[in-house]
Design goal:
271 residues; alpha/beta; eight-stranded mixed sheet; three-stranded antiparallel sheet; 7 helices; 11 strands; disordered C terminus; binds fructose -6-phosphate
Length: 271
């Protein structure tokens, strides 16, 4: 029998509505726990969410003054000020617009002389912040979370990793459209560290994500689909637009045309 706790699934009619709903949830969490420790992704998916958070903050409805953030990953060897670095991305989309204190913003150092020591430092920093309260995640078309790429094994903790060609292609826009300029290596928080977060919100939008969302939710727990390891966590909210929810069976989807929420009963655990 399947004794695994279900995902909570939320399907929204539009990306804008999805972003606004998550931003409100984060603003509420900040009100309940001003010293919230957030884990943050980059990429195309959270761009609208970060815009909503900027607006809430400007309107005085989201207060980051006591919060802390830890980004999931960073390219290796890219100068921090390079427009393609995830640090630059975060500055553009969120950090320079909200009232986070500089000392509470944490990113992996892409220029670290010793990447292994840098990964250890990051793990220690997460631990001394008390762990991640709310981890936001995107998902790669190949099922990666953070830069935990599909493979025969996964690293539990923050580590140095080699990016798959499809991941480099997906990030080409940050490097003038040329995927060969996207670094081949990165630093990433590990799956074990992600799974220790108290609450996880995974966001996926667009038809291209429908298949990996389905494999994450319905497939076996396997390192070949790193996001499937989220089935091991008891507090994961999967927030989708309709296109990304295309392959989720109707029983797991809200009936309403607009936003809705459903507990998602997994059928079985295979593999
Ligand atoms: C980036 C990250 C990645 C992305 C994923 C989806 O910090 O953690 O796992 O979330 O590659 O990227 P987009 O949103 O561009 O489709």
């Amino acid at each position: 029998m399947n004794a695994w706790p279900p995902f909570t699934v939320e399907v929204h009619a539009s990306v804008r509505e999805l972003a606004a709903a998550i931003a409100r949830r984060i603003a509420d969490a900040l009100r309940t726990r001003p010293a919230l420790v957030l884990g943050l992704p980059t990429g195309r998916t959270p761009v609208h969410l970060y815009r909503e958070l900027r607006e809430l903050c400007a309107a005085g409805l989201a207060d980051f003054s006591n919060a802390a953030t830890f980004n999931l990953d960073e390219f290796l060897g890219v100068p921090p000020a390079h427009p393609g670095s995830y640090r630059s991305y975060m500055e553009r989309h969120l950090f320079r617009h909200v009232n986070l204190r500089r000392e509470n913003i944490h990113l992996l150092d892409s220029g670290a002389a010793d990447p292994i020591l840098e990964c250890e430092r990051y793990e220690r920093a997460i631990r001394s912040a008390g762990g991640i309260d709310l981890q936001l995640l995107g998902i790669g078309d190949n099922g990666h979370i953070g830069f935990n790429e599909p493979g025969a094994s996964l690293s539990a903790r923050t580590h140095r990793t080699r990016l798959h060609p499809e991941t480099r292609r997906a990030n080409a826009a940050l490097f003038g459209g040329d995927w060969r300029k996207v670094p081949a290596e990165a630093l990433s928080v590990g799956v074990g560290t992600i799974l220790r977060a108290r609450e996880i919100i995974l966001i996926a939008t667009g038809r291209a994500k429908a298949s990996c969302v389905q494999r994450m939710m319905e497939g076996p727990v396997t390192t070949r689909v790193p996001a499937s390891l989220l089935q091991l966590h008891s507090n994961v909210r999967v927030v989708l637009d309709k296109a990304a929810a295309a392959f989720i069976p109707p029983r797991g989807r809200p009936q309403s045309a607009g936003a809705g929420e459903a507990r998602y009963p997994r059928r079985s655990l295979r593999g």
